[in-house]
Write a structure and sequence with these properties.
- By secondary structure, the protein is α/β, with parallel strands linked by helices.
- Helices cover 44% and strands 17% of the residues.
- It has helices at 11-22, 27-34, 82-98, 118-132, 151-165, 185-203, 220-231, 254-261, 299-304, 320-328, 336-339, 342-356, 364-387, 391-410, and strands at 38-47, 53-64, 70-76, 104-111, 141-145, 212-216, 235-241, 244-247, 273-275, 287-290, 309-311, 332-334.
- Strand 7 and strand 8 (244-247) form a beta hairpin.
- The radius of gyration is 20 Å and the shape is globular.
- It binds nicotinamide-adenine-dinucleotide.
């Protein structure tokens, strides 16, 4: 079986440079695009449950705050580097501008093992907050979950922040519902992605009913996207996770698979056949959803792909070379900053709910999410129609112009 490894390309640096050229930006504007406002590196000495003391590296990158407080996830992942957090922080700036929520972009996390016991995870999460508590805040920088963290970790972090600043639910999003979290936050990225896939499918005259979907990475984003697309009539024909991949041309029930994964690995899911994970991209399908890690779809994968739509659930899953291949082969790519923005919008609603001390009523969240994603999709699709650009270039251009307009309106570098 082939083991898939993310490729180490910094896709965003390349994209940023091409946008600088394309938009004819001044030196100052180019600096704003590329240089973060603040980067912080902290060391976290933590006593682990086995009695040893180990030091972990933590990061927080705040990219651009012209449109509002910084906002972005905290990733607990082995090998996390500052450069990765920097690229992802930039991406958050564009994403927030694209869906027009009043945030700037940030990202951070800790370089730590993936399989830590809960007590150690909690100790690291608390140590991280203790190091950065003066740099974050409900009107400064609002963290959220990302790879390796979840609502439970956000709850611990909110509690740690309260030790310094008093109870402040709006300091963090993606919290447990009992602490002011939004019930729809967990599903929002995947469901939002399914909504945008529905829009893109209509635009390329692909009926969603019976459309075949392959999902790379069946975690939070991939599983919810699968569940929602299945509910809209699509057929999930292949799924992978870090343990392997499976396929079934008659369709895989995503909710059934999710239940199976609670106690067993993907490869033992009875109704489907095993598949080499490297071949997931080449499965005969209409829609490919990379929802695992960044840099996993390279040019060779793109050449083998047989889909009509790629919907980027993960951040930066396609390398620039893969993007070129998809464009040449007339495959529609729904870019990450649009495709997975549903989670950021749900986080925005959670933050608003916490600031105004009043929960959203049933139905309000779903309709606001659909309205916002529709508006962002329309903005991008219209721009792409006008310029003949890909949806990715159009999305970046719309977003960057909004950020630069905010910088100019403030009358100073933000
Ligand atoms: P997750 O940890 O819940 O799921 C990740 C999935 O990818 C898991 O199923 C894992 O087994 C799988 N995976 C890991 N390595 C793989 C490999 N080599 N091949 C195939 N599958 C592999 O994470 P998530 O929250 O679903 O996030 C997935 C991606 O989406 C990340 O890039 C994240 O930054 C991005 N994202 C997430 C959200 C969110 O709200 N969760 C929002 C925006 C972007």
């Amino acid at each position: 079986m082939t083991v898939l490894c993310p490729q180490p390309a910094d896709t965003h640096d390349a994209m940023c440079w091409s946008m600088v050229e394309r938009l004819g930006l001044t030196e100052r504007d180019a600096q704003l695009l590329l240089a973060p406002y603040r980067e912080v590196l902290v060391s976290l000495p933590v006593r682990l449950s086995d009695g040893t003391v180990r030091s972990f590296r933590g990061y927080r990158v705040q990219h651009n705050g012209a449109r509002g407080p910084f906002k972005g996830g905290l990733r607990f992942h082995p090998g996390l580097e500052l450069s990765e957090a920097r690229s992802l922080a930039r991406l958050m700036t564009w994403k927030a501008a694209l869906i027009d929520v009043p945030f700037g972009g940030a990202k951070g996390g800790v370089d730590c093992p993936a399989d830590l016991p809960p007590a150690d995870l909690q100790a690291i999460a608390r140590a991280y907050v203790a190091r950065v508590e003066r740099l974050i805040g409900p009107t400064r920088d609002i963290p959220a979950p990302d790879l390796g963290t979840n609502s439970v970790v956000m709850g611990w972090m909110m509690d740690e922040y309260a030790k310094f600043h008093g109870p402040t639910p709006a300091i963090i999003t993606g919290k447990p519902v009992e602490l002011g979290g939004l019930p729809a936050r967990e599903s929002a990225t995947g469901r939002g992605l399914a909504h945008l896939v529905t829009r893109a499918a209509a635009d390329v005259s692909l009926p969603l009913d019976g459309a075949r979907v392959a999902i790379q990475g069946f975690g939070n984003v991939g599983s919810w996207a699968g569940i929602e697309l299945h509910a809209r009539g699509a057929r999930i024909v292949a799924v992978s996770d870090e343990s392997g991949a499976i396929t079934r041309s008659d369709g895989i029930d995503p909710a059934g698979l999710l239940a199976h994964l609670r106690g067993a690995p993907l490869s033992t899911y009875g109704p489907a056949e095993a598949l080499d994970p490297a071949d997931l991209v080449a499965v005969d399908c209409d829609i490919l959803i990379p929802a695992a890690l960044g840099g996993m779809i390279g040019a060779q994968d793109a050449e083998r792909a047989r889909c009509r739509i790629v919907a980027e659930g993960a951040n930066a899953p396609c390398t620039p070379a893969a993007d070129d291949v998809f464009r040449r082969n007339d495959v529609t790519v729904l870019p990450d900053i649009l495709a997975n923005a549903g989670g950021l919008y749900a986080s925005y609603l959670e933050w608003v709910q916490n600031l105004r001390h009043q929960a959203w009523r049933g139905g309000e969240v779903d309709s606001l999410l659909a309205e916002t994603l529709n508006r962002a999709y329309d903005d991008v699709a219209k721009h792409a129609d006008r310029t003949g650009d890909s949806l990715r270039v159009a999305a970046w251009e719309v977003a960057i112009r909004r950020v630069l307009a905010a910088v100019d309106a403030r009358g100073a570098g933000a």
